[in-house]
Amino acid sequence: MTFDASQGAEAPPELVQLLTPEGERVEHPHYDIDLTPEEVRDLYRDLVLVRRVDKEAVALQRQGELGIWASLLGQEAAQIGSGRALTDADMAFPTYREHGVAWCRGVDPVNLLGLFRGVNHGGWDPAEHNFHLYTIVIGSQTLHAVGYAMGVQRDGADAATIVYFGDGATSQGDVNEAFIWASVFNAPVVFFCQNNQWAISEPLEKQSRIPLYRRASGFGFPGVRVDGNDVFACLAVTRQALKNAREGQGPTLIEAYTYRMGAHTTSDDPTRYRVASELEAWKLKDPIERVKAYLFRNQLADQDFFDAVDAEAADLGRDVRKRCLEMPDPEPLDMFDHVYVEPHVLVAEERDEYAAYLAGFEGAE
Amino acid sequence: MTTLTLAKAINEGLRAAMEQDPKVLIMGEDVGKLGGVFRVTDGLQKDFGESRVIDTPLAESGIIGTAIGLALRGYRPVCEIQFDGFVFPAADQIITQLAKMPLRSLGKLRLPVVVRIPCGGGIGAVEHHSESPEAYFTHTAGLRVVACSNPVDAFHMIQQAIRCEDPVVFFEPKRRYWEKADLDRDATPVPFDRGRVVREGRDVTLLAYGPMVKTCLEAAAAAADDGRSVEVVDLRSLSPLDMEAIVRSVRKTGRCVVAHEAPVFSGLGAEIAARTTEACFYHLEAPVLRVGGFSTPYPPSRLEEHYLPDLDRVLDAVDRTFAF
Asked: The Transketolase-like pyrimidine-binding domain covers which part of the protein (chain B) (predicted)?
C-alpha cells in the first residue's frame, strides 16, 4: 500500500532552518529573526548552561543521588529557542524532559531534581513561573494546556499557551483530542512537538506514516517543521506561532526535528535498539556547536567569552550538585499533606494513627 | 417553598452557582442547546452564553483534561459525563491528573472541578447506560465522591460541590430524576461530607445512597407493617464516609445492611462493612450484610429488575440479620 503521490503526501518535508550545522546564517522566505550580538551570546550561554545542568544530573543519578533522570542532551536548541520565545504572560506545559524550558522560565534547576530524587512530585510554584509541573503520563498535559488556553481566551488576556510533547505522544488519544479541542475552540495554544526520533526504543515509524507536522492539516490548523537543533529557527517559528495565537488565529503545531542524543532516561540502554552511526551523524548537527561557530565566524564573541561561559557552567554544576545533596528528605507525615485542600476526616484519621504508631518507636532501638 | 424534580433541583442549583460566581462553567456533550440528555442543564446556555455553557466535542478524556486546564486558570468547571458507562475514557484524566495534581504541587494548585455522572439502572436502557462505577472513584485518593438521593439534597449538594476546593465526583440517581419534593431554598443544608438519618428506627440500620435510598425507605415502611423498626441512613458522602453517623446508628440498632446497585464484590459496601464491624464489634447482633448487584456485567434491561436490589431483596437481607 502506498500513498497517492498526487496528494502531496510523499512530497519531501520542508524544514525551517536559519542557522546551518556549520554555523552559517541562511534565509527563509517566511521566517526571519533579527538578534543583537548580545542576544545571540545569551542564547549560547543558555544552551551551554542547561547542558551542564543535565550533565550534572546524569552524574548525580549514576552516583545514586537521583533515582532516575531524563536527559535533554541534543534537544537544547528546541527548548531554549521555544522557551525564549515566551513572554512572561505566556504559560508553558512541559513533559518531564523540559529542563531547558524550565531554565528559561526561571525555575531553579535544583527544584527540577526533587522529583527525580524522590523528595516530591514537583517542587516549584507553577503560577510563579508560568511553567506547569512536569507531567509523566504521556500526552495528558496537552489537554490541560488547551483548557488553560480556553481560560485565557475567556479572560481576554494577551497571552498564549505552549505545550510540549514528544513524537511518541502523538499516538495518544489525549493529544489527538487536544488537537480537536484547540481547533474547534480556536484556542490560543502552540503544540510544540520535539520529534527526537525515539520513543524509548520505538522509532518514529512506529508512530506515524507521515511527517508529524502534517497531522495538523487534518485537524484544520497550520503545522510547521523546524530544525530542532537550530536555536534561531526554533525561536523564530515559536515566536510567530505564539503571536498568531495571541492575535486570535488559533493553534499551530510545531514539529521540532531533533535527536535524543542520550538514553530515554538513565534506566535505558539505547545500544539495544539503535546504531552508533546514527548518533555520530547527529553529533555533526549539534545545537551548541553551530552557535559557537556562528559567533566565531562573525566575530561576535572572543575566547574570553567562551571561557567565561564554561566557567559559569562549571560553577552552576557544582552549585546544583551541592544543593541537591543538601535537599532534605520529607518527613513521613508529609505524605498526608495536600491530598485535599479542605478538611478530610479519613486522611486526618490515618495521619493521626500513623503518627501514634511512629511515636511508639521513640526511645526504642 | 417550591415543588420540583431532582433534575430540576440540580438545574436550579447550577443556576444559583453560576449566578453567584462568574468563574463557574458547565461543559459536556449536549449540555448547551439541548440542555443535556436528561435536561439537567436546560436553559442555562440561553441565559449564560456559549462561553460558560460549553457543548464539547464527543471525547470524555478531553472534557476532564480541558476542565483541569480551565481550573488551573481559575475557573470552576462542572463537567457532565453523559452516562455512567461513558466515564471510562476519562478515567485516566480523573485518576492520574485531577485527583493527584494538588498533592503533586504540594498544595500550590487547586482543582475545584465537579464531575457530574448520572448513575445506576432502572430506566430500561441499553448497555453502558445503567452502571454504578462509584467504587472506582472512592478507591482514588484525592477525589471526593458524593451521591444525592432526593431533590432537596441535590439542590444544595451540587452547590456545595461547586464551592468545594477539591475535585468532586457527583453521582446523580438517574431513575430518580423525575421524583419530586418541596424545596425550601433558605433552609441551612447539611454539610456535604455528612450522612443523614432519613428514617429513624430501633431494630436494624439500612445504609444506602443515591437511587437505593428510596428503595430502602420503602423497605423500612414495609417492615414497619410487620412490626420491625428500621432506621435508614442516607450516606450522601461516599468518600470520605461519615463513619460517625454510621456508627451512631449501628451501635443503637445492633444490626446493619448496606445496599447499593453496584456489584457486591469489592463494592463500597465491603469497605463500609469492614469499618462498621471494626467500630461496632461489641454492639453487633449479626454480621453486617450486603445487598447489591451481582458479579456479572449489568444485564440486558429485561433482566434488570432481577439485578437491581429491590424492596424484597433488601427485606430478605434484613430478615437474615435477625436469623443469627
From this structure: 4-179
Give chain B positions within 8 Å (CB) of A126. 72, 105, 108-109
Q: How many CB atoms lie within 10 A of CB A254?
A: 28
User: How far B104 CA lies from chain A's nearest CA (Å)?
Assistant: 5
- Residue B130 neighbours by CB under 8 Å, 6+ apart: B84, B85, B120, B121, B122, B123, B298, B301, B304
**Catalytic residue flag (residue A260):** yes
Pick the CATH number of B196-321 from 3.40.50.1820, 1.20.1730.10, 3.40.605.10, 3.40.50.920: 3.40.50.920
Query: What CA–CA distances, in Å, run from B3 to A127, B10, B149, B179, B183?
Result: 45, 13, 16, 10, 6
Task: Name the pLDDT band for A10 (thresholds 50, 70, 90).
Answer: low
Q: Same topology for domains B2-183 and B196-321, yes or no? A: yes
The pLDDT tens digits of the residues spanning A179-218 come to 999 999 999 999 999 999 999 999 999 999 999 999 999 9
CB count, 10 Å around CB of B191? Answer: 12
Catalytic entry in A51, A97, A105, A260: A260
Whether A134 contacts A122, CB under 8 Å: yes
Rounded to a whole number of angstroms, the distance from the CA of A187 to the nearest CA of chain B is 11
Task: Tell me whether B103 touches chain A (CB under 8 Å).
Answer: yes
Specify whether A30 is catalytic.
no
pLDDT the model gives residue A362: 85
The answer, yes or no, to whether ipTM is higher than 0.90 is yes
pLDDT tens, position by position, A263-299: 999 999 999 999 999 999 999 999 999 999 999 999 9
* Location of C-alpha cell 486522611: A347
- What residue spans define the domains of chain B? 2-183, 196-321
The answer to whether A173 contacts B89, with C-beta atoms less than 8 Å apart, is: yes
- Domain enclosing residue A338, as ranges: 332-365
Same domain, A305 and A285: yes
Q: Give the three cell numbers for residue B67.
A: 476542565
Once rounded to an integer, what is the mean pLDDT over residues A141-159?
98
Q: Which residues of B are catalytic?
A: 129
Homologous superfamily assigned to B2-183? Thiamin diphosphate (ThDP)-binding fold, Pyr/PP domains (3.40.50.970)
Find the closest chain B residue to A175 by CA distance: B62
pLDDT at B265 over 90: yes
